[in-house]
Amino acid sequence: MAIELQSTLIHLGKAGGGTVLDRTEKLGYTFGGGSSNSKRQPKQYHGSPPPNHISKYKRLQNLILTLRDPIDRYKSNYYWIQQLTCRNNDDVEYNDTRDPNCKYGMYGRPFECCKVNTALTTKFWNRYNNSASILAESFCSSSSSATTDSDINIQIQMQKQKQARIDLQKLKHIKFSIHNWLFEFDRKKLVSNNNINNNINNTDWMDEKLFGVVVEKGYDFIEQIDGAIEWILSKTKYKKYTSSSTTSINNTNNSTGTINIMAEEMAYHDIVNAKKRLEQQPQPQPQQHSLQHSSIISNSTLLLFPWLSRSDEPITVLGTCCLMKYYYYEDYKLLTDPIFINKVCKGRTKELCRHSIQSINHRRKQILQHITNGGLCIDYYHKNSEIENSEIEIDASTDTNTNTNTLSNNNNNNGTMKLLLSSKTVMTTVPLPSLFLSSILFGLFLILVIIGRKKIFKCYIIHDTRSYFT
């Protein structure tokens, strides 16, 4: 029987909440009572913040918060729902023959089953050509795409941006931002961008009850989950040991020694033992042709429907900038706030949590700085158009032409050799005169080596012959 944790999970969509529930259950625990397979579901807030959510948070004992780069959440949700949504309602072009009433469910048999979503019609997908990047870029319509100052053009561009905001909010897992989950906001004005109340001084309730776990590539998310469970146990099960207790033991000299046992240490040993039990259990084989509803576990099944875009395609630089500026700006400002980081990163894994958030900030630093300084996304895009993947920054020491994917040296009079590496087009320049001189020196070196080897061989023959006759 699972041990009930006196805690509630704030399960932000596509931020690893499913993995948190799965890991917690495997270690023999559950949030608030009941296992994920029983009628009594784990205690969590998922989908949308509950009404009067801040007041509810303050009344709860402990809260586990899942965090992830907002752009990564957006991309994950877009392509996830694109796989599962039926296209046989009003879309005859693709001829989706999957059954929305399939008994196996869309996760169990994604090739045969799908889910009807009346909000995501063919008009929605066609408006953005089935591309998450095009939807993201549409947020810049009112400022970056205008070519004239006419009132009609401005109204058209503003309407495109408003439509993009409405359409993004049809993707329910990422409709609400980190900021929406942690601060008061007006739900009736969610479509508006001027709906923020980010006062870090109003977050005192986070100090003793909010524990963050962060999904970020290269950082151990499972270890953070284990650390979260330890933190809950140290505050609840072992609360009476928060101050050190004394235990007497006999050492080798038969004298009495003293051990200070802290609540954190006892909780840590509980998790170590739970891990050992888990390792001894037979691991179930993953089902074929199934999808895992997880943000950090790669799906073994690759759906190849004609309307699907590749889920590994990065959001374009322009799309990333537009979303950061017009939808997730407050989230990124929050993630860079040291006060907030110190509030959510706690316990044994606090440094792992901090480094994960710092990694997110590092990847988005240049765009965030550009936006904060009042820059337009279209300007940033033109300056960085050779960077196709917004998660990779290339520092080139040579002059670059940012309007193409081919880097060229401005000084072409002396002649250069260009080494083009992959689609990112990194150039190494080698002056031709230097290359010619190097070739001559290398040839002389080879000649000297050959002459030297002949002399050594001749000496060896003479020496060997003399040895034979003596």
Automatic annotation (TrEMBL):
Region entry Disordered, spans: 31-52
Residues that span the membrane, as ranges: 432-451
Keywords: Membrane, Transmembrane, Transmembrane helix
Organism, as annotated: Fragilariopsis cylindrus CCMP1102
Keyword Membrane applies: yes
Protein name: Sulfotransferase domain-containing protein
Domain of life: Eukaryota
